[in-house]
Amino acid sequence: MMIIRHLQYLTALAKERHFARAAAVCNVTQPTLSAGIRQLEESLGVLLVERGQRYVGLTAEGERALAWAQRVLADYGGLRQELSEMGEGLLGRLRIGAIPVTLPIIALLTKPFAQRHPRVGMVVSSQTSIDIQRGLDDFSLDIGLTYLDNEPLARVRTLPLYQERYVLLTREAALAGRKTASWAEAATLPLCLLTPDMQNRRILDLHFHQAGAEVHAVVETNSLITLWSQLCLGGLSTVVPESFLLLLGTLDGLVAIPLTGPDATHLIGLVASDRDPLPPVAHALLDVARTLDLQAVINRKTLSALA
Hints:
Blueprint: H1 2-16, H2 19-26, H3 30-44, E1 49-51, E2 55-58, H4 60-86, E3 92-98, H5 107-116, E4 120-126, H6 129-137, E5 143-147, E6 156-164, E7 166-170, E8 181-182, H7 183-187, E9 192-194, H8 199-210, E10 219-221, H9 224-232, E11 238-241, E12 255-260, E13 266-273, H10 280-290, H11 294-306
Parallel strand pairs: 3-4, 3-5, 8-12, 9-10
Antiparallel strand pairs: 1-2, 5-13, 6-13, 7-11, 7-12
């Protein structure tokens, strides 16, 4: 158990880059953390941490040890989860990284998972697809929810869930009653869109370009709450996946109009590391997801919202 604690100290220090913060994360004193890392160095026979008056960084040996530490801790956590599953049921924590545009549907996954595995806690983080890749690689995430057919991730297994389609949300009176609108028409409106570091924004820019339109957002944000505020209170329009309509209440004057020209879709799904064995909590979520038809749920909700 002592070596596990020492490996936890090393990974915390590499993440926090500060001895006191790392100690707080590990719920120990700073001298305890420093002594534990020194013991790890002595047992391995190498210097792992560059030390000055403050934390400097890991040595080359420390970087190599960190990669092993992350794998060992992930395997140890997976072992504990598997043994718990053999007893009273799966126990642990499921860490999900989700791109922002999938957050409106995340409860469709977490609710049935919680019903099947009530002893597992869940942490859902809003992340970019790049962050999800990093989290799967360094074992800080168990599973991701992201695009599968645009800028795909590497070293992962995938489970497709639904096709993302796009609607214009607007209060523009001239578009009221329209069954569809073109991407070029949407580009002429004052828009709030996600920031360019978000994969969804890069997808939208691609489809605006395919329509021969150049879009200039009045407001860009990485926050769905800010986007919603600009839509409801700021007088702006936006382009979002139709899955957002699952959360859409009755907003006076707001209309949702499917976009055409081009008719665009992109595949959303779960991604998990392709390493074996897969963490039991990730395996369990994939099993739950295979029993669901999220596309049917989204289709029913959006049809009623667009009616």
